[in-house]
Each structure stands twice: as C-alpha cells, then as structure tokens.
Specification:
The protein is mostly helical. Helix content is 70%, strand content 0%. The chain contains 8 helices and no strands. Helix 1 runs antiparallel to helix 2, helix 4 runs antiparallel to helix 6 and helix 6 packs antiparallel against helix 7.
Length: 160
C-alpha cells in the first residue's frame, strides 16, 4: 500500500489532489486559487479543507478571504460542538474544554480572526477578540495576548 501525502485529511482523494495542485502551483496565484476554490466547493465546510484554505489565503495575503474562512472554521466548530453564541455562556465552556483539540481549533481560528482584523486596520474589533481569547488563554498559547499588547502599546516618542 502506498502511503499518500496528507493522509491525515479526511477528504476524498480528488479533493486531496486539488489541494496538492494548489500547493504545486503556488507561484501562479490565479491557478492555485482556482484549485483551492474547487476543493472548497466540493467539500462545503469540511474542517480540514477550511484550515488549508485559511492558510492559503493568509499566506497569499488575501486577508478578506482568510477572515471569511477563519469565521467559517469557527461556525463549523460551534455547529458540531453545539456551542452557544452568547460570549458569557460560551466563555465557561471554552475554559472548561480548552485542552480539547476541537476547542483549541476554535480558539486558534478566533485568535486568527483578531490578527486579520488588525492587519485590515480594524484595531478595535481586533482588541475585543484578543481580550476575549486572553480571558481563556492563561498560557498565551494562541498569541492573542501578544497581539493585544502590540495593539494597545502607546506610540513611541520619535522626538528624542
């Protein structure tokens, strides 16, 4: 039996091939993006494909698509784990379950949303998200604390 690359993906072989084609055509953005979009279209909201698409869009600096994809990851996790929408109800669930892989994925994608919003110049929204993640992330595993510190750092005096 031949071991295939990306064997951890729970997606059909044709979708794996589309993701491989996207990687193989990385330098040709329009071509590689076509393959990513085809993989997304074939799988709907498959978590593995969404994560691949997020990374693709982020590293291609297509931040709007990266933001939309990160939000889809969060929505998918909320749906599969039946998480509440209200932050005050969601927070204790996230704290209690923060070591579970699926909840870590939610927190990672939520923190990524904060990063992308900061890149897009939406600092207040980014700070709000970072602050929420910091409330759960006492070890700063998700980087939200660092981003929050950067966003709230007073401007340095250049007059000296």
């Amino acid at each position: 039996m031949q071991e295939t690359e990306f064997s951890w993906y729970e997606v059909p072989e044709d979708v794996k091939q589309l993701l491989i084609l996207a990687a193989d055509n990385w330098e040709n953005t329009s071509e590689s993006e076509k393959y990513i979009n085809q993989a997304l279209a074939k799988t709907g909201n498959n978590i593995d494909v969404l994560i691949s698409a997020y990374r693709y869009f982020y590293y291609k600096q297509n931040y709007q698509m990266a933001l939309e994809t990160a939000e889809k990851v969060q929505a998918r996790v909320k749906e599969t784990e039946n998480l509440p929408d209200d932050w005050e109800k969601l927070k204790p669930v996230l704290i209690k379950r923060k070591e579970e892989q699926i909840i870590r994925l939610y927190l990672t994608s939520y923190a990524a949303t904060g990063l992308i919003l900061a890149i897009l110049g939406k600092e207040e929204e980014a700070k709000e998200i970072c602050n929420k993640v910091k409330e759960i992330d006492d070890k700063n595993d998700f980087g939200a604390g660092i981003l929050f510190d950067v966003l709230t750092r007073p401007p340095e005096d250049d007059d000296e």
